[in-house]
Amino acid sequence: MRFSFVHAADLHLDTPFRGVATHGPLLERFQQSTFHALARIVDVCLRERVTFLLLAGDLFDVKDRSVRARLALRTELARLDHAGIQTFIVHGNHDPLSGDSGTLGLPASVKVFGPEWEDVEVRREGRGLCHVQGVSYPDVEVRENLSARFRRTGEHFSVGLLHANLGGDAGHANYAPCTAADLAAGGLDYWALGHVHTRAEHLLPGGGVAVYPGNPQGRHVHETGERGCVVVDVEDGVARRRFVPVDRVRWHRLDVPLAGVTSLDMLQAVATEVVESRCAEDFDGHAVRLTLAGRGPLHRELTRPGARAQLETDLRERLARAHPPVLLESLKDGSRPEVDLEAVRAGGGFLGTLLDEAQALSHDDAALASLWDDEDLTTLGQRLKRLGVDALEAPRPELVAQAGQRGVEQLHEEAP
Amino acid sequence: MKPGLRINRFQVDGFGHFRGYSGTPGPGLTLLYGPNEAGKSTLLAFLRGVLFGFEKRGQPERYEPEGALFGGELWLETASGPLVVHRHGGKRASEGTLTVRGPEGQPLPETLLDQALADVPRELFFEVFAFRLDELSSFQRLAQQRGVSEALFAAGMQGARRLPEAVERLRKDAEGLYAPRGQKPELNRVMKELEDVQQALREAGDRPALYFSTRDRLAERIAEGHALEVARKHVERELDHAARLESALGDLAVLARDRAELATLPVLDTFPPGAETRLEDVLQRRKTYRAQQAQLHERLTPIDEARERLAAPWPVRERAESLRMALATYSGHSEQLRALPARRAALTSRRRQLEQSLEELGLAVDAGGLLALDLGARARGELESLAGRLDAANAALAQAEAEQTRTREERARLETALGRVQAEVEALPEERPAQVRQRQAALGRMRAVRGDLERLAEQRLEQRRQMDGVRAPTDAVPLRSLLPLSWVVAAAGVAMGFAVLAAWVANVTVGMLCAVGGMMLVGLLLLVRHRVETARHASLEAQAARHRWRQQEEERFRSVQAAMCAREELLQRELLHASGAAGLSPGASLADLAAQESLLAELLTQAERRELLLREEDTLRTAWDVAVREDQRVEEARLRADQREDLLREEWRAFLVARRFPEALSAASALTLWRDAAALRQRLLDLRTDEEEFTVAEAACDAVTARLLQEARAAGLPPGPAETVAARVSVALEEVRSRAADQRHLDGQRGELLAEKARLDQLVLDEDQAWDALLAEGGCQDEATFRRRAVQARRYAELTARVREHGQRVQALTGMGENMAREEVHAAGGDPGLKEQLATLRERHQTEGERHKAVLTEQGSLKTQLSQWENDDRVSRLRIQEETLRAKAAELATRYAADRVTLALLGRARRRFEEEQQPRVIQLASELFSELTAGRYRRVFIPAGDARELRVSDGARDWSAEQLSRGTREQLFLAFRLAVIRDFGETRGALPLITDDVLVNFDPERARGAVRLFARLAEHHQVIAFTCHPWLREHFEAEGAHVLELPGAAKPPREGAQPLRVVSSG
């Protein structure tokens, strides 16, 4: 029998956006974007007349303490309930069952899986259509491989709904860790996964597929590009997948080439042109991180104290007035003076010694640790950790390499 | 060596005891020699002060003279061209006011001086480039001054010349980002904000949990509210019923009482309502109308009598209109009548005055004649025009005479000046300034070319020395082989011969052994020969390479020598040409040059003066020609003015005679007489007009008076003077108007009273008819019966109405009829029982109402709270702030860490660099110090670590500077400074070295060595040394120093520019 469903995950409703001013016209657009994304997922379900919707965890973040997120979820799922579309939900590490999710008061057609594995048969016109299995996180940290609890229970199409880290993705906490082989062992046809925010598909041995739809709305500059949900059409046990973007605010990381740019006005014009060429008009807004790249005559001007900050302020005001408005998340200076490091190293002298020392340090853990063992840095790192900022937790070799390069730039630049 | 700065000349306007001193140091080594107190330290302070600013007020080295100009000038040679640096003390800035100009005096930016000084800091210049003896031994202070120390050590680090600046910048950047105990740095502020935001989030609590628990409480309160509402409505209904019965209790009692009284009265339903009142009203109105009829009759009688009196006959009333017209006409002329006598007297008086004025005027005419004269505006215009032209002619004549006097005086002045200029020109020689300047320029070129030739000769000498060094013989390598191959062949032959001989003498075995031994010896010989040949070939190749290098060097030297020869030839030709142009022989001495210079300067002054005078003579001659032409023109103008004045005077006389005026009158008198005559004539014309008007007015007044008298007589009024009659007529007419008004008033009053009388008669009739109808309606015949039945009817109606009213009220209050209500009350236990039940119900109602209200209030509060949480985005904003601040803090912390790591890395690299490679400055210092001490010490070095000290070593052991003797320590520091100056010159710019008697603690040998180092440094740097010691002077002179002698302190300097005396030149 033919049917279809929608798979979405990591809604993170009412998530805070970094770099958005807490006042101003852009705030409203960004704050509403996760709600709009959910509404568009529901619109997709209604338009495609799907049988059910799967939400694979992290619907919201408990630590965000957002009432609006809970209410919006209930309101949107009520629309599906009125249309006779079922919803299956598992909770993830950001919205575990130990939170307040039990008191949401969701419509009757919504099935929220508990802390124990469950299998639900989806029926249509009195006949079994498919099986949906799932398990929610009881608490934030789940180190158990939950996928091991899943097993095929019938001949119908079987879907596993799980919030898990497949293959130990380094960019995300390693909760409910599992491997492709673990998933394949369950014998399910479709694994509807959540947790990893980047869209991905993993074909499993034995014919199954594990899918991460990614989050439906990018939240910061590391979540660029289109975001959305996956529509799955099942016919004769075969699942065909289509990605449907639903994000209303899009993030970009763009390089502004410095080559040939001779003045700050010209640089502003070039940056604006780069942004306009990449920011489509049919969005509620865009957020960009610009990086000044390459080598050019403006490098010296940009290293002047306050020059880059002033340029960033001017550009931010200018882009905020665009249609649709563009949020300048930050302006990074990736420009470089025209220094050939290898030539400098070969030239010897103090600069050669500096580069040699940097290279030696970056390969010597003990020396690196002693370099990092600065009282101020240690104190600062501890204070930042208390504030939830993990910037200075451990010595970072790349900082030493950058320091060597920076020292050369500063000294070389001034050299006659 | 990079071009830097050289002091070509200094000019001291006022500094210490110097006034107007100047000096010209040489480009290389210069010694300023002078005794104690000659001003050596003062000059050093002057040079430092002009370049970097004077010392602060109160400092001993400020040398500010009292009451004199403070400061001076330096003529500098720099990479960007000559500069004239001028610095003078002012009231504001203690360092003085700096002015930088070009050689032509054009102003230039001060930055040119900084560039010429290679941006060297003031402290570094004072410590290294221009210092005194006491400053030479202050290396510790130099090392302790962070900026100078860093600059010195970095100066020797290849690739790290700006290391101090970079380190300082990084340090500032890091401190600007974060301070462990600070609040202002950016990261500190961000962390503080983050703490505040997190505190605010903690205070906001777990909003969803609160929301859901509040929502549950709201649901409970809503259910409770519904239950309370039902119970409250039930009690309300019971309470309403009982309250209605209680309110009807009074009405039920009244009803019972009224029904009993009603039964005692007859039925009077049809008796007219309000009968008593109507009866009283009719009686009262009849009485009032009759009284009004009597009052009306009394008012009509006097009005009729007055009307009869006013209707009697009166002549005045009959002629009232004629009298009114005559009186009006008379009144219109009354003012004129009263004024007639006065006007007549005034006219007579004016005529007499005019006749007298005419006599006094002096014209030979009477009044008629005056009126006949033509004194109009046109004639007066002619008179004034003629007088004006006459005055203008007189003025033109006077101006022409004055101008003639002025031009004659100017002509005489020009003639005097021309004579003076011509006399002065004849006294000056006939020489042109351009020619003199050409000779001066040639003299300058001659000096420059001779200097170039001297330097060229030195360079050629140096080239020749280098060439000789290149040509020096080297070790010869034998061209032939040391071990020829024939020797090997011969040796093999000899060996074989010995083997054959041994075989023949002994046996074959011995022969074979001999042969083998011989072959081995030959092989050994071959091996030795191969080694020797290889070494010889290598030596030959090295010799050939040296030969080729020597040939290249010689070729290069030859080309350089050829270029120098060509250059020398060119310079010789230029010298010949310049000397010819300067009027000297090419080999003229410096004294000849100086004498020729002063001669040319004097000649130039005279030539310029002569040229100026010639131009002035031309100017004066041109002015004299102009003055002569002007004098002729003025004379002609004066003659024309004289003729014109005569013509106009004749015309004037003819004009006066034609007007009967005295002919000798001047223009002003004639104009005055003309004005008076014209005024008198106008007054005569005005008098004649006034007299005619008076006659007409007098006739009109007589006619009006006669008509008034006639009308008064006809109206029967008594006769009399006109004014009396007019008053009487006026009174009579006023009385006529008064009587007519009275008549009209009386007629109006009578009509109104008659209408009122008719209305009253009708009202009385209507009231009589109403009385009769009322008695018939009450069924009575008389007033007394009517009144008794009316009282009974009123009580009957009252009781009936009350019974009906109370019955309705019982129905309205209880919703029941009277009887049913009585039964309900009875069932409730009567009045007391009902009241008790009511109190109980009221208490219950109040209790439940309060409870319901509290529940509703709580519901509203909970709903408001929920609604607020549903729409409140404060937590969301705080989370955004938190995440943004975290990202910002991470970025700033990373930047801070990068700064700190870069600083640490630079420090490590620097230590490693110093350990592995001593800075170039230190290497140079080693060489110089070794030379200064004649090899006693071999090496100067800086130990690794943070200590900034110099140590010296003789190869076996080392010492710190403090462990050395004073002289040696000063030699060490001098060597270090010379090294810094050389390194600075090679990398940034060659700056001069200025020292003030720094060699006095050196022994003669080391002092000579130091002077030699100075001389070597002077090849690329300007070196200026001060001393007061003759033995040092000898050393300097031996090295070819340019010696300038300072005047002794005992001999006071004279005012004005005084160049220092040149004693010898190197």
TrEMBL record, chain A:
Cited Pfam families: Metallophos
Residue ranges the record marks as coiled coil: none
Source domain of life: Bacteria
Domain Calcineurin-like phosphoesterase: 4-198
InterPro entries linked to this entry: Calcineurin-like_PHP (IPR004843), DNA_Repair-Maintenance_Comp (IPR050535), Metallo-depent_PP-like (IPR029052), Mre11_N (IPR041796), Pesterase_YhaO (IPR014576)
UniProt keyword list: Exonuclease, Hydrolase, Nuclease
One Gene Ontology term of the molecular function aspect: exonuclease activity
Listed SUPFAM superfamilies: Metallo-dependent phosphatases
PANTHER family: COMPONENT OF ATP-DEPENDENT DSDNA EXONUCLEASE (PTHR30337), PHOSPHOESTERASE (PTHR30337:SF7)
Protein name from the UniProt record: DNA repair exonuclease
Organism of derivation: Corallococcus aberystwythensis
Upper lineage: Bacteria, Pseudomonadati, Myxococcota, Myxococcia, Myxococcales
UniProtKB/TrEMBL annotation, chain B:
InterPro entries cross-referenced by the UniProt entry: P-loop_NTPase (IPR027417), YhaN_AAA (IPR038734)
Species lineage: Bacteria, Pseudomonadati, Myxococcota, Myxococcia, Myxococcales
Region annotated Disordered, chain positions: 1047-1066
Name of the protein this chain belongs to: DNA repair protein Rad50
Transmembrane segment boundaries: 482-504, 510-528
Superkingdom of the source species: Bacteria
Location of the YhaN AAA domain: 6-205
Coiled-coil intervals: 344-417
Keywords from the named record: Coiled coil, Membrane, Transmembrane, Transmembrane helix
SUPFAM superfamilies noted in UniProt: P-loop containing nucleoside triphosphate hydrolases (SSF52540)
